[in-house]
Every structure is written in C-alpha cells, then in structure tokens.
Design brief:
extended; 450 residues; four-stranded antiparallel sheet; five-stranded antiparallel sheet; alpha+beta; 50% helix
Length: 450
C-alpha cells in the first residue's frame, strides 16, 4: 500500500492511494474460504464446492468490498499517523475520472480530496473584552410571573350560568331543521366545549345565560371553523367534516369557569411546599429569585454567543470553502447545492467555532470526567420532566434515566461535548474582561433582532 499526499494549497490536498495485489490477496482469500465453508451448491456436499466455482461466483464482489474496506482503513490510519487534521471527510477526487476495473485489474489507484484544517494561533487574555448583560427584574415581570403561577394552580369551578369564556360540559346530538334528533345521527356524550375558543360571536351568544339542564341548538362548523377542532369535538374522522351539514343540540349538564388560584397559605404551600412561604413579601422574594435565576441563564447563554463571535473575529480563520460546500452536499441527501451556496455563510462560523473549541480545550487541558457527563445528562433528564410540570424528581430516577441516555454512544458523546463547552465558556469568562451592562428585559430581547 502506497499513500502519497499532494497539497494543492494551504487548505486543500489530494491523497493518492495505490493498492497492489499483495495488499488485499490474503483478505480476499480468507473471505472466499469462509464462503466455501457455507456455500450450498447443487451437486456438491456442504463445504466441498470447488474453489474455482466459488471464485467465479463471488470473487469480484468480495474483491470490491475488501479493497474498499482496506482503502478506508489505510486512509484514516495515514491521516492519524501523519497528524493530518482535516475538515469533514475525504471525498473522491473531483476533476479527472477515476476508472477502476475490478474484473481485470490487479492493481488499483484511488484519489481523494481533503479539506485541511487551517493552522491558527489563539490566546484568550484579559485584553479581550466581551459584553455581559445583567437583566433587571422589575415589577412588571414580578406581576406577570405571579399571574402565571396563579393560572397554573387554578381550577375549574361550577357556576350557575354561562357568560363568554366558560366551559360547557354535556352531550351533543345531531338535529334536523326543526330541532328534532336525527335518527342514527351523530351523538357524542361527555363533551367539553370552551366558549372562549368559539370563533363566531352569534353562536357564542346562543349559550349566554345557559345553565345545567338547558338545551342549545347551534351550528358546530360556524362555532369552530377549524376542521381539526370539529373532528375532535364530534369524535369523527377529519375527512367527514366537509360533508357535515346542519345543526347540533347541546344538552348542557354543567357550566364551569376557570378561576385562578388565590394568593395565600394554601396556594403558597402548593407551589413551594408546606410552610416554605408564608407571606406576600416572601412570595415576592421567591418570585424575584426565580426570575433572576432564569435571567442569569439567559445572560450566560448570551455571553457564550458574544464570546464565540469575539473569538471567531480575533482568530481570523480561513476555510476550504469549496471543499466544505461539496462535502455538505455529498454527505446530506436533503441539502442541495443551491441551498448550501445560499446559506453557507451561516455554516462558516460553526466550522470556525468548532476549530477554536478543539484548540482551546487542548491548550487549557480541559477534560470531562464520566461523572461530569452523567451530571449533564441528569440536567437534561430534569428539564424533560419539568416540561410536564414535574420538578420534584427523586435523584435516583434522574440518575437511572441519565444512565439510559449515556448508554447510547451518540447521546453520550453529546453530553461530553456539552460539558466540555460549558467548562470552556467558564474558562473564557474567568479570563476575558467582562463589559458588564445592566439592561431591561425588553432591551435584552432586542439584541437578538440584530
């Protein structure tokens, strides 16, 4: 096996791989012998088929497979041994057509294009200034957060009559133009309808003042013009909605209205645990701390965005642009050449940041332990529980879930990378000069509009 490298410029190279018969003969012979042991051919006992027949049947496909595997293994071994850092993956050489005749040739030559990772030097110092935004917590945010909690812990209560935004519970029955039930027509029990979600005011008014025991005839499709909503309400297939005509009678069993929770000891105990919060002042303090914690996370994320932008600008990294565009198209069936050309500027900084990360992690000897990666997985697990409103999850549950995710190599790699980037950002934050700026939440949001 002979591999030679020709650098066409600082960022591109061509690898020439020459394969001789001695390189692959033993591998091909071994596979063919295995085939012979397993072959079932009429007229021959198992394992006794002449090798000539086996070669005639399988030699070319086995040769192709083994040579390709050998080239792939040798190519990456060459890159590793010669410390050739590349971007993306080697691609078949573009330019001259490579003619490989596996039927007749015994020696083969392959060429591959490489996108070389650029050499650069980057030091993070106290001279590097990066903005750090501290978001102010004001009364408006406090009130909105409190109102959100009161809504989250609210409940439906039974009321005497319907108004404009109540929940109607009862039975829906298909009726004719005279209001009589249609024989074998649609009948749906235990229905819940939100008046607030009704789009037609005339239909909504029909329910105004209605109480349990009353009957209201209305047009379902006018009240809820969305076919998906009608299908869900009547428990029919969406395709049947188009053919649906006429009116329905709602036999009201109960009228309910949603009431937000009321601040007080009972509410505080539900939210924070018994006795943890006792007064309005303590409630405000906890709300402020929670908002501040959320804002701190947003500030940290924004710092990462700004630090990344600052270091990319400082590093001034050139990329093998044409190679990377080609690599993205050839390795992703869902991306076209036109899309890559149009959006490549969005990807360029991702490539640059990846190079900077790898360089700084190595430079600062930042490593991630198995326990640190597991803690990152536990954080992800807790976030998933919290999406369903579950925050008090026992640690053993989180650990078991995290271990399940870590058992998958691809998932595990992501947690190691995530924790590595967190530690890197922490190093950058402790090293650069922070240009601290106190801003309102509105002004902070506008940073993302640029």
């Amino acid at each position: 096996m002979n591999i030679t490298q020709e650098n066409t410029d600082k960022l591109n190279a061509i690898l020439n791989v020459k394969v001789e018969e001695a390189d692959y003969a033993e591998r091909v012979d071994k596979v063919l012998k295995d085939y012979r042991r397993q072959a079932r051919v009429d007229g021959f006992r198992p394992g006794k088929v002449p090798m000539g027949i086996i070669k005639k049947m399988y030699h070319t496909p086995v040769l192709v497979d083994e040579v390709n595997k050998l080239v792939s293994e040798s190519l990456f071994e060459y890159l590793k041994e010669n410390n050739v850092n590349i971007l993306g993956e080697p691609l078949p050489h573009k330019g001259e057509e490579q003619k490989i005749d596996f039927e007749n040739d015994r020696e083969f030559e392959f060429k591959f294009d490489l996108g070389l990772a650029p050499e650069f030097s980057l030091e993070v110092t106290a001279k590097d200034k990066v903005p750090y935004y501290k978001i102010k917590v004001d009364k408006k945010q406090q009130d909105e957060y409190k109102d959100s909690l009161l809504g989250r812990f609210g409940e439906f209560i039974t009321v005497d009559k319907a108004g404009k935004d109540e929940l109607i519970k009862g039975t829906l029955v298909k009726v004719d133009k005279d209001g009589k039930e249609v024989e074998n027509g649609i009948r749906v029990e235990n229905v819940s309808m939100s008046l607030d979600m009704m789009k037609d005011e005339d239909q909504k008014i029909l329910f105004s003042g209605a109480a349990g025991g009353d009957e209201v005839v209305f047009d379902v499709k006018k009240a809820y013009p969305n076919d998906t909503e009608v299908a869900s309400l009547l428990r029919i297939d969406k395709t049947e909605v188009a053919m649906l005509e006429g009116t329905f009678k709602c036999v009201i069993e109960e009228v309910q209205k949603f009431e937000k929770a009321v601040p007080g000891a009972e509410f505080y105990d539900k939210v924070y645990g018994e006795g943890e919060v006792k007064t309005e002042e303590e409630f405000t303090k906890r709300v402020t701390e929670e908002i501040a914690l959320n804002y701190e996370r947003e500030s940290e994320y924004r710092f990462m965005v700004d630090a990344r932008e600052a270091l990319i600008k400082k590093a001034k990294i050139d990329l093998p642009v044409e190679f990377l565009k080609r690599w993205m198209v050839e390795t992703n069936e869902q991306i076209t050449e036109e899309q890559v050309s149009e959006d490549f500027d969005k990807y360029e900084d991702d490539f640059r940041w990846q190079l900077i990360k790898e360089s700084l992690l190595k430079q600062q000897d930042i490593k991630v332990s198995e326990q640190e990666a597991l803690e990152a997985a536990k954080g992800m697990a807790l976030n998933q529980y919290m999406q369903y409103g579950i925050s008090n999850v026992p640690d053993e549950y989180l650990e078991n879930y995290a271990k399940e995710m870590m058992a998958k190599p691809e998932e595990s790699r992501k947690f190691y990378e995530q924790k590595g980037e967190e530690k890197l950002i922490s190093y950058i934050k402790s090293t650069v000069k922070l240009d601290e700026k106190e801003v309102s939440s509105e002004k902070f949001r506008k940073l993302y509009e640029k």
